[in-house]
Amino acid sequence: MRNKFTRVKTARKRSKSSANWLRRQLNDPYVKMAQSEGYKSRAAFKIIEIDEKFKLFKSGKIVVDLGSAPGGWSQIAVGKVGEGNVVAVDILDMEEIPGVKFIKQDFLAPEAQEIIGRELRNGKCDIIISDMAANTCGDAQTDHLRIIGMLEETLDFATKVLAKNGSFVGKVFQGGAGGDLLQQFKQKFEIVKHFKPDSSRKESAENYIVALGFK
Fold first, then answer.
1. What's the rounded Cα separation, in Å, for the pair 103 and 66?
2. What pLDDT is recorded for position 16?
3. For residue 192, which of 7, 71, 151, 185 is within the disulfide window of CB 3.0 to 4.6 Å?
4. Is the separation of the CB atoms in 133 and 150 below 8 Å?
C-alpha cells in the first residue's frame, strides 16, 4: 500500500523547525477537516470537543473570546449563541466573522478590560474562552511562570465580567493549573476540570482548564 504520509523537502531557505511545522500541517487530519468545513483553523475542533463535553454554549449567551485570531473559536461560538453575542479580542488582526465584534487590543494593556467591557451587555458576559498562551523562551521554569501568569490575568478579568453561573475555558500546559491558582479557581467556580481534547496534538503539552458555575 502506498504511504500517504507527505514528505517535505527542506528548502535552502527553510529551517528544520519550519519544515517540521509544514510537514505536520500537511499530514494533520484536523487541518484538512478544518479546510473542508471552512473553519479558520484546526483549533475550532478543540472548542467543539470542549463544548460537547461541558455544554458551554446556549443561544443568547454572551461570549468573550480572548486571543481569538485567526477566529476558529469565535466561529464555533457565534454559531451556537447567535450573531451579536460574541466579542473577540486579539493583538493580531483577524478577518471579519459575521456576527462577531472584533477588538484589536493587547489584552494585558491597562485600558483593555474597560474597552472590552463597553461591548458587553451591562458590562457582563456568560462565557470566557481563551486560547491565549504566553510567548515561550525555551527555559521550562520561566515558560511555566509566563503561562501561569497569563492564566492568572485571564482569571482576574473573568472575576470582573462573568455573570453568576458563568463559565471559563483557559489554556494551560502539562501539569495544568496547580497549587494556589487551582485553589483560586475552586473558590470562584462550582466545578473545575482539566481537559485535553483529542484534537490537541498528541506530542503537545497543551491542556485546558474548564471552570463552570461562577459564584
1. 10
2. 54
3. 185
4. yes
% the chain with pLDDT above 70: 77
The CATH number of 40-214, from 3.40.50.720, 3.40.50.970, 3.20.20.80, 3.40.50.150, is 3.40.50.150
Is it true that the peptide bond before 110 is cis, omega within 30 degrees of 0?
Answer: no
Domain with CATH 3.40.50.150 in the chain: 40-214
Angle at 43 between CA 45 and CA 141, to 5 degrees: 125
Give pLDDT, residue 5. Answer: 42
Give the model confidence (pLDDT) of 68-91 as tens digits: 999 999 999 999 999 999 999 999
Lowest mean pLDDT across 18-22, 107-111, 114-118, 160-164? 18-22
Q: Which three cell numbers stand for residue 51?
A: 463544548
Catalytic site residues? 171
Does residue 6 surpass a pLDDT of 60? no
Is the CB of residue 36 less than 8 Å from the CB of residue 194? no
Question: What is the b/e burial string over 105-130, where b = at least 16 CB atoms within 10 angstroms of the residue's CB?
Answer: bebeeeebbeebbebbeeeebbbbbb
Using the structure block, give the residue that is written with the C-alpha cell 449567551: 61
